[in-house]
Write a structure and sequence with these properties.
3 domains; 221 residues; four-stranded antiparallel beta sheet; alpha+beta; Immunoglobulin-like
Amino acid sequence: MTSDACRELRAALGAVALGGADPAEALALRAHLDGCAECRAELRELTSVAAALPLADPSRAKGGPTQPPSALAKRVLGRVAAERTARRTRARRRIAAVAATSAAIAAAIVAFVLIVPGNSPSGSRVVFAPHAGVSAAATLRSRPAGTEVAFHVSGLDRGDTYWLWLTGGDGNRIAAGTFRGTGTRTDLVLTAAIPLGDARRIWVTDENDNVVLDQRLPPPA
């Protein structure tokens, strides 16, 4: 890999090969060459080319100076324009990716902020980030049988079956119950056999076990 020192001294290689380098510049380059095999190799190539220059006989060139094809300028300009367009396209894609990531982070932050601590008299309230037209909220309350979930959801496909799950810190998911989508707002009260203090995640899957809604729960204070 070319270092900053290589880039700074590379221009002096040609002058040294031709014997016209400034003495101080040549001294600095020689010191650099002691530890840089890449620059030494390039200097050898330039020196061999410089040694062959006196053998060139301009009078033997056939047809005189050659002119570039008339279409060369158009091809060069076209290539430059294409590269400029490609760079702009890549920049727009990067900006779009950053914007999408920022939006996802913002949605996650909003959903997390709306979680009320578990020791609240009204329970732990969760507002899910909207996804594919589905919006939902839940209130989790501690009960002797486990965790009661008052679940409110809109936008689920009518007639399709869904599962509501709670997951503990051990990663095991506990079913709170199943229900069917109505296409409109649905209000449910379900119970999962897991203590509220152990719950770390609440989520909904469809009949193919695809995740439809998902929200992490904060650990108990």
